[in-house]
Specification:
Distance between the termini: 63 Å
Shape: globular
CATH superfamily of the largest domain: Cupredoxins -  blue copper proteins
Helix content: under 10%
Number of domains: 2
Strand order of the largest sheet: 3-16-8-5-6
Number of strands: 16
CATH architecture of the largest domain: Sandwich
CATH topology of the largest domain: Immunoglobulin-like
Structural class: mainly beta
Largest sheet: 5 strands, mixed
CATH class of the largest domain: Mainly Beta
Length: 265
Amino acid sequence: MKTPMMSRINPLLGSPKNLLARFMTAAAIVTIVGACTGSEPQNLTFDLEIKNHQLNMGKLEAKQNDNLTLNIVGDEPGEFHIHGYGYEEKVSPGKTTKLIFKANATGKFNITFHTNGQHGEKEHKIYTNHSHEAEGICKASHEADGPTPEISVTAIPSDDPHHINIVATTENIVLTDAGDHWHLHVNGMFHGMYVEPEVTFDTRIIESPGEYLIMVSLNDAQHCDYGIQAMTKIVLEGEEPVDMKQDHGNRAEEVLIGSLEVQPR
């Protein structure tokens, strides 16, 4: 007599119903893992509150090319500033300021709040370090049998007051969002990472405006320094020191409140 089909069950696999359930569970796990580890840019939203010169989230984390939406609320008038990216948005009590941008540059970018001085003066340091300095400065090396990468820099006054147009020209190296790039330092302070050759620098964040030492350096995807640099000096004739108590709506101080950390994708 023939054995009924449903009785032919492999004891290691169980019944067809259990086998189907196991398959569906495994497929769901693969889908979840794939979603978590995918390389596609994500849409990230951060609800930020500035209270008593402190941010409710000390560190914002994202990956390169993620689309960021920042909803910012403050307890006093001021300006929310992401250094390196150059974004500066006004904040008013009782209102939500929305900042939307793509995190195309990798590294650590300080977030500061420009107040109008109602809480008195505070000493602080802005941008004294960037992504790899927290772990110790690392050195990169180029291919020994290839031509040596080069970088040069020029700086000219912008048509916009208190701004400098900086052009970094590179040779024998390909700059990409996820690879080699160049770092900008002004008067010994780090101010961003770039792959595009031309950037505009806002001099109002410098405490002693008028004379600027511009330095650019070549760095790899891990922000390690190739040891290849170029420098130039520019003087903005007639530029008067910015009175921080008058500039940007009686702004008297710039307080470090957090950071944005963007990792390579």
